């Protein structure tokens, strides 16, 4: 049995390596085209990294009247730091948004992010093996065939894969702390990785709040841990948060004059979705109009970056609080689309011209079928088929079916873990849901598969639990049915 397990595990690893290598080279033209096209990829992190590397100042390129770079806190520092290290090792030849795509430092980062994507699969396998080896094998297989993860990793200008890596690693150490033993090392590593995730991308910087509440409730309910150790565990978690996230916020106060974590305009994006939904208008036009209105406001002009960020947050807060029910409804309703959304697989099959044609077909279809109850993925099939994109239709539907099955078994997996009624069952469910629901709340309005990357490994883990249980149940019923048939046959003879 152990030999068969090793054969299957090595086969899955080989599949992952082959897919990584194939898609790495297959995406060369696609990545080069997107990198060299202005406005297609978000270069905020690489821009800060380049300015930091060339001038030594953490800036997004803005200068004051004397020509000096103005320090920024528009992006968190860990991902620009990785880029700065790559520039130090391999040099910086071209800006990523220049018309020419070259530079060993960018290729290094692309390979490094692909390697992080591979490590995510290994980490969630190690997490699942804590419970069952069969669950671990299926979990890593589901991660391997998640084509979206390879495309997201190819977009190495944004830190979504790096964020997913740190979130998955923090989840792994939290599970070890809950299930295996209450080792201080596991708690320390969990806290550090959680803070590294926050310092990689701002979307995760508040996840520590529900997790500290979870930790307090867990420790208060656990009678096997003495009061002294409970206090030590909480001090460790809070202390690491204060040192890492608090350190970054202290830097922002000292350099930029504000205690805010980041000056990103995420609240403005959320408000734009709300306004677009209420007024039945296009989100992009709504955001541009709102952003222009903010930029033209006299109270906004001539302010520092920190004060501008505070002003935007205050404006967004007022709008959301004036429509709290609509905002809650929109967040919940769009979270389902957020969990089921996938990337279009055209990049695997066609050149850039065909990808643009497919995108244009999708845009025209959405404009002409705004009030249709038929999902776009289903309704657009005849049009794509008539245009000869057969392989795209088949692969896209396959990916959609797989993610739908995964989400169904995710719900069943939660039920299975709950019914097992082990000491850790409820705690594993709750901590998993904290991660998932947090990102649904923060990123759910945007309905983008790229922003779902941090929680996909957790979803695959619980789904694998449900699928394996369902399979074993089926085999048990099949065996019982066969046994009953043989018994009846013997009685007849």
Describe what this molecule looks like in 3D.
By secondary structure, the protein is an all-alpha fold. It has one domain (2-350, 389-480). Helices cover 74% and strands 2% of the residues. The chain is built from 21 helices and two strands. It has helices at residues 2-26, 28-36, 44-55, 78-90, 104-129, 133-144, 147-154, 160-180, 184-200, 208-221, 227-256, 266-279, 283-296, 305-322, 324-340, 352-368, 376-379, 381-386, 390-420, 425-443, 453-492, and strands spanning 59-63, 69-71. Strands 1-2 form a two-stranded antiparallel sheet. Helix 5 runs antiparallel to helix 7. The two termini are 37 Å apart. The model is unreliable at 35-40 and 95-101 (pLDDT under 50).
Q: How helix-rich are the residues, as a percent range?
A: over 70%
Number of continuous helical runs:
21
Number of domains: 1
- The rounded distance between the terminal residues' Cα atoms is 37 Å
Counting DSSP E segments of at least 2 residues, the number of strands comes to: 2
The overall pLDDT, averaged over residues, is 80
**Poorly predicted regions:** 35-40, 95-101
């Amino acid at each position: 049995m152990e030999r068969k397990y090793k054969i299957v595990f090595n086969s899955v690893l080989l599949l992952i390596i082959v897919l990584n290598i194939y898609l790495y080279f297959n995406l060369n033209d696609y990545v080069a085209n997107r990198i060299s096209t202005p406005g297609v990829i978000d270069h905020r992190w690489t821009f800060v990294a380049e300015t930091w590397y060339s001038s030594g100042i953490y800036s997004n390129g803005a200068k004051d009247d004397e020509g000096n770079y103005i320090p920024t806190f528009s992006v968190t520092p860990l991902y620009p730091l990785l880029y700065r290290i790559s520039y130090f090792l391999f040099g910086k030849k071209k800006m990523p948004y220049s018309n020419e795509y070259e530079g060993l430092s960018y290729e290094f980062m692309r390979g490094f992010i692909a390697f992080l994507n591979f490590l995510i699969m290994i980490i969630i396998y190690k997490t699942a093996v804590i419970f069952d080896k069969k669950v671990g094998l299926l979990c890593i297989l589901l991660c391997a065939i998640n084509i979206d993860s390879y495309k997201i990793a190819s977009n190495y200008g944004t830190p979504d894969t790096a964020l997913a890596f740190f979130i998955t690693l923090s989840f792994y150490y939290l599970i070890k702390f809950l299930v295996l033993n209450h080792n201080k090392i596991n708690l320390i590593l969990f806290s550090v990785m959680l803070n590294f995730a926050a310092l990689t991308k701002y979307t995760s910087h508040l996840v520590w709040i529900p997790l500290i509440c979870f930790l307090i409730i867990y420790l208060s309910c656990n009678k096997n841990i003495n009061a002294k150790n409970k206090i030590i565990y909480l001090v460790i978690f809070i202390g690491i948060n204060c040192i890492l996230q608090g350190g970054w916020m202290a830097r922002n106060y000292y350099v930029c004059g504000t205690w805010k974590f980041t000056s990103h305009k995420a609240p403005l994006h959320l408000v734009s979705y709300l306004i677009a939904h209420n007024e039945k208008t296009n989100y992009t036009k709504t955001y541009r109009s709102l952003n222009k209105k903010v930029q033209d406001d006299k109270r906004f002009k001539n302010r520092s970056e920190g004060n501008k960020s505070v002003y935007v947050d205050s404006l967004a807060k007022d709008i959301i609080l004036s429509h709290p029910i609509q905002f809650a409804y929109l967040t919940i309703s769009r979270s389902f689309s957020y969990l089921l959304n996938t990337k279009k697989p055209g990049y695997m099959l066609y050149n850039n011209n065909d990808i643009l044609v497919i995108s244009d077909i999708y845009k025209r279809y959405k404009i002409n079928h705004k009030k249709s109850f038929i999902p776009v993925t289903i309704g657009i099939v005849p049009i794509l088929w008539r245009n000869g994109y057969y392989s795209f239709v088949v692969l896209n539907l396959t990916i959609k079916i797989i993610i739908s099955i995964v989400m169904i078994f995710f719900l069943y997996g939660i039920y299975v873990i709950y019914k097992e009624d082990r000491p850790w069952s409820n705690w594993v469910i709750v901590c998993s849901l904290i991660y998932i629901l947090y990102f649904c709340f923060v990123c759910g309005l945007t309905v983008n598969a790229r922003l779902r990357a941090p929680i996909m490994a957790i979803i695959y883990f619980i789904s694998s639990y449900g699928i394996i249980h369902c399979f074993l149940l089926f085999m048990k019923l099949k065996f019982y049915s066969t046994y009953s048939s043989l018994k009846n046959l013997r009685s007849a003879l």
